[in-house]
Design a protein that fits this description.
Protein name: DsbA family oxidoreductase
Largest sheet: 4 strands, mixed
Structural class: alpha+beta
CATH architecture: 3-Layer(aba) Sandwich
Pfam families: DSBA (PF01323)
Helix content: 40-55%
Radius of gyration: 17 Å
Organism: Luteimonas fraxinea
Strand content: 5-15%
CATH superfamily: Glutaredoxin
Distance between the termini: 29 Å
Low-confidence stretches: none
Strand order of the largest sheet: 2-1-5-6
């Protein structure tokens, strides 16, 4: 069974949703088929460039002040830690373009382990506060997926996969994807948001033809912000 996932590496609910998908698959037990997972790019902030700007500063302007921002981040962090994810919003996260990170993921899908690179990018941003547009950070994430440092730097310098990433983002928009994570199961069932493991398992069973539709609304991130 194929699962296509649209996400952004600075979307907190995308990392949480990834963990919940894995838990949902485990709930299927012996009924689980072999899964083929494909990651696709999405940009929550397409106007961001390579200049780092403090994330709390960006959120304060967007969501109504420092107090509201602190509350939002604390709630999201608590949810993530309950899932076993080491979120730490006190690590001075920054807003930068995620295009280079998505290009790295596309390279990894062809020449390495995209899942491992994705995990490394999520961890670098949410747990360490690293700049995802920094070549050094991208090289380290690439190494987690078996990519040689010189290969990653050549990809960055030559802007490899830039057109492909932009084309996939345009495809997502044409498909009507407006928030992430969005999971498309077997090319025919779309599930949006970081569903609970039980809901993800039910969606997978539905795609397998052994359950009725059950997925409800779940937290997600879109251009206007995250739930």
């Amino acid at each position: 069974m194929r699962i296509d996932i649209w996400s952004d590496v600075v979307c907190p609910w995308c990392w949480i949703g990834k963990r919940r998908l894995q838990a949902g698959i485990e709930l299927l037990g012996d009924d689980a088929p072999a899964f083929e997972i494909h990651w696709h790019p999405y940009q929550l902030d397409p106007d961001a460039d390579a200049t780092p700007v403090p994330l709390r500063e960006v959120y304060a302007k967007k969501f109504g002040g420092a107090e509201r921002t602190a509350q939002m981040l604390a709630q999201t962090q608590a949810t993530a830690r309950a899932e076993g994810l080491p979120f730490d919003f006190d690590r001075d996260q920054v807003r930068v373009t995620t295009l280079p990170a998505h290009r790295l993921l596309m390279l990894a899908a062809r020449e390495g382990d995209a899942d491992a690179v994705g995990e490394a990018l999520f961890h670098a941003h949410f747990a360490e506060g690293r700049n995802l547009a920094d070549p050094e950070v991208l090289v380290a994430a690439g190494a987690a997926g078996g990519l040689d440092a010189k290969r990653v730097l050549a990809m960055i310098d030559n802007k490899e996969f830039d057109a492909e990433v932009r084309a996939e983002i345009a495809q997502a928009q044409a498909m009507g994807i407006r928030a992430v994570p969005t999971f498309v199961i077997d090319g025919r069932l779309a599930v949006q948001g970081a569903q609970t493991p039980d809901a993800m398992a039910d969606a997978l069973r539905q795609a397998l033809g052994s359950a009725a539709p059950s997925a409800a609304s779940a937290p997600a991130c879109g251009p206007s912000g995250c739930d």
